[in-house]
């Protein structure tokens, strides 16, 4: 025997029916905070700022980058 029940309700009504909390305010706060952090850090994605950060490490960062590129160009040994 099969029984099929279609319930037409909004997500908020379903949450209330099952006794689940309304997390809308929490979700809005999280999205707002994430947006703020992304805006604050957008300048770090600019090429000139990125290069200044890399150069502040001196030659160490360049050496690590070159090592990474050499390893990426090598074919794996079987």
Report on the structure:
There is one protein chain. The protein has helices at residues 11-18, 24-41, 47-55, 59-73. It is mainly alpha-helical. It has one domain. The mean pLDDT is 82.
Question: Summary?
Answer:
The protein is mainly α and 78 residues long. Helices cover 64% and strands 0% of the residues.
Question: Keywords for this structure?
Answer:
mainly alpha; 78 residues
First and last CA, distance: 59 Å
Q: How many whole angstroms does the radius of gyration measure? A: 26 Å
Which structural class do the helices and strands define?
mainly alpha
Rounded mean pLDDT score: 82
Major sheet size, sense and barrel closure: none
Looking at the chains present, what oligomeric state does this protein adopt?
single chain
Stretches where pLDDT is under 50 for at least 5 consecutive residues are none
Number of strands: 0
Taken as a percent bin, the fraction of beta residues is under 5%
Number of domains: 1
* Percent helix range: 55-70%
Shape: elongated
What is the N-to-C succession of helices and strands? HHHH
Counting DSSP H or I runs of 4 or more residues, the number of helices is 4
Spell out the blueprint of helices and strands.
Blueprint: H1 11-18, H2 24-41, H3 47-55, H4 59-73
């Amino acid at each position: 025997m099969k029984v099929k029940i279609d319930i037409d309700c909004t997500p908020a009504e379903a949450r209330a029916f099952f006794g689940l909390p309304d997390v809308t305010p929490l979700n809005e706060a999280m999205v707002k905070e994430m947006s703020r952090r992304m805006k604050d850090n957008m300048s770090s994605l600019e090429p000139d700022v990125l290069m200044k950060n890399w150069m502040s490490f001196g030659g160490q960062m360049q050496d690590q980058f070159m090592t990474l590129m050499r390893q990426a160009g090598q074919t794996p040994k079987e």
